[in-house]
Amino acid sequence: MRRVVITGMGVCAPNGIGLDDFSEALQQGKSGVRFQPKLKELQFGCQIAASPLIKEGVKEKYFTPLQLRGLNASGLVYGVMAGVDAWNDAGLSKSIGDSPDWDSGILFGTGILGVDKFREAIYKVDENNVRRLGSTAVMQTMASGISAYLGGILGCGNQVTTNSSACSTGTEGVLMAYDRIVSGNAERMLVGSCSDSGPYVWGGFDAMRILPRKFNDNPEIASRPMSATASGFVPGSGAGAMVLESLESAQQRNAKIYAEVLGGNVNSGGQRGGGTMTAPNNEAVQLCIQKGMQSAGVKSYEIDAINGHLTATIKDATEIDNWSEALQLKGGNFPYINSFKGVIGHCLAAAGSIECVGAILQLTNNRIFGNVNCEDIHPDIADKITLGKVPLKTFSFKANVIAKASFGFGDVNACVFFKRYDD
Predict the structure, then answer these.
(1) Which of these, 369, 103, 157, 350, lies nearest to 242 by C-alpha position?
(2) DSSP-assigned letters across all residues of 196-225
(3) Domain 4-259 carries which CATH code?
(4) Where in the chain are all domains bearing CATH 3.40.47.10?
C-alpha cells in the first residue's frame, strides 16, 4: 500500500490569501466576516458574509488577458488562484509542449460555479443579445469549469474532474484523490474545492432563515461555533487546494512534505434515522468517524486534535456528542477541538478544502489555533468535554495526528486523518 503525502498547498480565504496570510490570520483570530452593502440593498435579513478580498492586479498573475475578458465567476477565480499556488508551492512546473503530464491529475470540486455569469447570460439571451454572450460563458458556468481551467493551465494528463457533495466536497475530494494515488492510477493529484461569492449563492440560505440576523452592525462576532448564543452560520466563499503525491514521487523530487494522509471515510446517512436534507443521521456520522479511523490505522487515543465541521448552529452540540460516542472519549480525555468558521464563516463547498489547509498548518506550525466567539460555550458541550479542550487562544502544541471532518447538506459525511510526516 503506497503512502500519500501533501507536498503543496494554496488558499484563497476570506481572512487571508496565501499560506502566510492565512496562517497568521488563524493564529491571531483575525476575522474575514464583513458587512456587505449589496445584501442590505437587496433587503437580506443577514447582511454580512465572508469572502476573499483580492487586490487590484492580482488576477493578472493567474489569467491571460484573453481569459480575463468577460470573466465573471468568483469561485473559478478563487479556485485557480489556490490551485496554481499549491502547484507552485509543491515545486512542480507546468507541462510544456504537446504532451501533458500523464502522472498528474486534478480533482477540484464545487457546489455551484459562475452564478453571476449565469445571471448575466440569462439577461443577455432574454434581451436578444446572445451574440454578445462571449465564448467563455459555458466554461465559467459548468461545474467542471474549475478543473478544466486548471487542467489547461497546468497541462495535467491524468484524471481531471470535479466532485460536488455540498459542505463535504473538499474533504471528500482529498479521500478520492488519496484513493487514486494509493491504487497506482496517479502519482500526484491537485485536489481542492471552491465556492462563489454573492447574493445569488447566499440568498437561498437567507430565505431559509438559517443565517444570523442580529449581527449586521457587528459582523466579526456573528459566527459563533460551539457557543450558547450561536444563531446560524455566516455564509462564506473562497478556495483551498493541496497537492497529494505518492511518497516515492515526493522523495524522488526531494520535495518538502507538509503531512501524510493516513486515510478516512465517506458515507451518507441516507436521510434515515433522524437524518434529513439539513440534519445528520447521527449513526452515520459516528460510523464515518469510526471507519475512517480503521482506514487510517488510528486509535482514538492517538488523535491529538479535531478540526470539526461545527457551523455555529444548534447542531454543534450534536456533533460533539457524535465525536464523543465515536471515539469513546469525553472530559479531559477528549482531543482538542476547534472550528475555523468563527473567522471564515461557512465557505460552503470550499469549506472542507480551506479547513484542511488550516488543519495541516497546525501540524507544520506546531500550533493549535484558538476558537473565536465561543467564550460562552454551549452548556451541552461543556457537559461532554473539559472546557480546556475548546481552546480560546492559539497555543504551542506538537500534534501528531489531526482529524478533519465535514458533514454536508443531504446527510453526507467525510472524515480524513492527517499525520505529521515521519520517514
Answers:
(1) 350
(2) --SHHHHHHHHHTT-S--S-TT-GGGS--T
(3) 3.40.47.10
(4) 4-259, 265-419
Q: Return the minimum-mean-pLDDT range out of 130-144, 200-214, 226-240.
A: 130-144
Say if residues 350 and 239 touch (Cβ distance below 8 Å). Answer: yes
Q: Which of 108, 25, 135, 125 is nearest to 358 (CA)?
A: 25
What whole-number distance in Å separates Cα of residue 99 and Cα of residue 72?
31
Cα–Cα nearest to 420, from 405, 402, 400, 404: 400
User: Do 207 and 40 contact (CB within 8 A), yes or no?
Assistant: no
- Cβ 169 vs Cβ 408: under 8 Å: yes
Q: Model confidence over 358-375: pLDDT tens digits?
A: 999 999 999 999 999 999
pLDDT in tens, 79-111: 999 999 999 999 999 998 889 999 999 999 999
How far, CA to CA in Å, does 309 sit from each of 14, 211, 413, 421?
17, 16, 10, 24
The three three-digit cell numbers of residue 134, written as one number:
462571449
Distance separating alpha carbons of residues 292 and 286, to the nearest angstrom: 10
Residue 174: name the closest of 164, 189, 154, 156 by CA.
189
Residues 245-278, buried b or exposed e (16+ Cβ, 10 A)? bbbebbeeeebebbbbbbbbbbbbbebeeebeee
pLDDT tens readout for residues 333-392:
999 999 999 999 999 999 999 999 999 999 999 999 999 999 999 999 999 999 999 999
Give the span between the Cα atoms of 139 and 125, in whole angstroms.
Answer: 17
The span from the CA of 375 to the CA of 228, in Å, is 9
- Say how far apart CA 362 and CA 280 lie, in whole Å: 28
Report yes or no: 78 and 10 within 8 Å, Cβ to Cβ: no
Residue 131 has pLDDT above 70, yes or no: no
Q: Per-residue pLDDT tens for 13-43?
A: 999 999 999 999 999 999 999 999 999 999 9
CATH 3.40.630.30 assigned to domain 265-419? The reply is no
Nearest to 107 by CA among 147, 57, 55, 138: 147
Average pLDDT across the chain, whole number = 95
d(CA 192, CA 100): 20
Question: Any residues with CB less than 8 A from the CB of 361 and at least 6 apart, and which?
Answer: 9, 19, 22, 23, 26, 367, 369
Residue 364, classed as helix, strand or coil, is helix
